[in-house]
Amino acid sequence: MAADPADHPSSEPLGAALLESDLVFEQQVLRLNIRGDEFVYPFVAGPDCNVTSGFGLNVSNEFGLWKRADLVHIGQLVRLTLIGRGADNATLSLVDCEPTHQVDFDAGSERCICLRWDQAARLRCTVRLRVPTWPVLLQAEVVPQGARRVMGVCSLPIFPPVCNFEAADVACIMCNVPQARQCRALNGLMPLYVAEAPGYLGIGGKVWDAALATIQWLSGPEECSKTSGSRLDQWVCGKHLLELGSGTGVLALTLGTLSSPLSVTMTDLLEVVPLLEMNLALNRVVGSLRQADATRGGGFHCAPLRWGDAGDVQRLLASGIAHDTLLLSDLVYDPTCYAPLVDSLVALCPPELHGRQRALLVYRHRHSASTFFSMLEKYFEVDVLPGLDQWAVDEALEGDSSMMDMQFFSCTRRPAAVA
């Protein structure tokens, strides 16, 4: 079914990119966040291989906001765990917890703490690296007890004082993103970690819900295919991928581990590229991209792309990679960017590649999108795709109604005579 711009409400005036009502609503995924200035990079263990640091935890949505009513619908038990390649050679000790509540000491490298979100949730703990080789991460998760589920958070890597060359190289790359504060862990077929830097890049430095929704949607069955298979087979496997507005890179990096694309190119503004490079390097050490890279020759690439910038587009085209699948995840939120976004998409999808390229557009309604879809349909055939089903969301995120408002579209360039 072709997309009808009239399907998208147009009663709101075109105004600021994101209004308050656009930033906090029930369909968003709640997530834990690390706050405070103590628990930030760099974390390099001392000569005794110990790191003792304090940090705070809070709960918010993808934009760092929350409603007080949200807090009564989540659990209060927080589980701290050491993860990563070096976790088997590390131990975790809780030094103190403020305010003082129940503290359960479990076996191994796991501790459970009962916290009240209406008070300051501050912790201090010690991580000891027994055999210093690989970095580890400290993961905090809310144990499901309430009506709303919460996405966990990880520290940045804790590096031993002497580590292998690869880990040391990552530590150097991370210096290019000095305000990176925390990581998100996606534990699918293979572990993946992405650092967030909201203080450095604003909302562009955070994992957005749409990226998580797109991962789940692509992992589902392809209803329109004449042969059995998943959407990953149709959109990702054996394809050259190009993502616009990659942010942290969580979507492109995850797809590179879930399937076997020929190459993956992540793009964003020039100032965001260091975060993409950092997350790429991070997952070659503590994640699973080493295995993913070994399955193909093209590998992963990071490149600047400011929408509407002809020079950036030409440099991408000059790479010689004919991208089969373009990914656009929640990019239609600022009316001032509609025209440059369409311009770049048109330039990246020349008419002569009609029928070969497809763009997957993931849309979450915030403003009127009728103007955007009118621009887009001048050059592209836009078809509505089935949305997420509740089972997929529940299985992946143990969520409730989170992300069910996402809409998915397939965009194919029209032949030159039609355009």
TrEMBL record:
Superkingdom field: Eukaryota
Database matches in SUPFAM superfamilies: S-adenosyl-L-methionine-dependent methyltransferases
Cited InterPro entries: Methyltransf_16, SAM-dependent_MTases_sf
A Pfam family recorded for this sequence: Methyltransf_16
PANTHER family registered for this protein in UniProt: HEPATOCELLULAR CARCINOMA-ASSOCIATED ANTIGEN (PTHR14614)
Protein name: Calmodulin-lysine N-methyltransferase
